[in-house]
Amino acid sequence: MTQSARTIEPLSASPQPDLATIKAKMKATWEDGDYADFARYMESGAKEILDGWQLPSGKHLLDIGCGAGQTAIPAARRGLHVTGVDIAANLVESAKRRARNEGISARFDEGDAEALPYADTSFNLVISLIGAMFAPRPELVCSEIARVLRPGGALYMANWTPRSMPAQMFKAVATVAPPPPGVEPPVLWGDEDTVHERLDAKFTDIELRRINYPQWQYPFNAGRLTELFRSHFGPVKRAFDVADEQKAQQLFKQLQDIFDDHGEYDGKTLTITRGELLLVCAKRR
What is the pTM of this model? Predict the structure, then answer.
């Protein structure tokens, strides 16, 4: 058992959550703020991760949690037949608009990672860059990915680990806006033992590797970055929206310290150096 698995235990013994309410809240959260603009600071790193996967052109690819297309659109440029799906309707519209503006042929749908709106064996490849990990029922995510993948098809994921900067950020946010009871922490998708438990039954040739998110830089300091998260990133924005003045001040200081502790600032640019990801590569049995 890895250290991260020991420190973040699944919540299987908790009461069954009200999933309809949870999903509605998740959808509203990711639609809040301006994630399309927020994600542009991470797009260079997303492209580098995509390049590292070396996906073969001409294949049918599904991007789960596609956001505003920051991974799907570069994949389409590489000659893949791309479909992106996301729970946030406004992000899907942003992806469609960007694809049109850039002359990219790609399909984008609003949909749920736990109930994908596609026929069995529709895709050769499924990717998810920090997307599917947030769905509340990972067993259904695994089942749906396996269902839409053709035998021999490949799954590629990049998931925050329990010790990453985003994991610490979500812990701080949870002190103001706690997650619903009965839902497992998303960062368990960044734990090797947990990934094997979830994928072994339907996948083979599972390869896992930890990296730091590449090229993750902001042209300002940690205080300005905290403001960016507060105004643009749905989960953080929602926490500030419900916090009273004292809690908001405490959360701001906590986040600023987390960004400082997990990055390096040279007076002009803040580079996040401890944004650890678990890269997952697996083949459908």
Answer: 0.93
Instruction: Give the distance, in angstroms, between the CA of residue 221 and the centroid of all CA atoms in the same chain.
Output: 24
Count the Cβ atoms, other than its own, within 10 Å of residue 79.
Answer: 12
Domain ranges of the chain: 14-161+180-215+274-284
pLDDT at 2 over 50: no
Q: How far apart are CA 187 and CA 189, in angstroms?
A: 5
Q: What's the confidence (pLDDT) of residue 53?
A: 98
> What is the structure's pLDDT at 15?
55
Tell me the CATH architecture of domain 14-161+180-215+274-284. 3-Layer(aba) Sandwich (3.40)
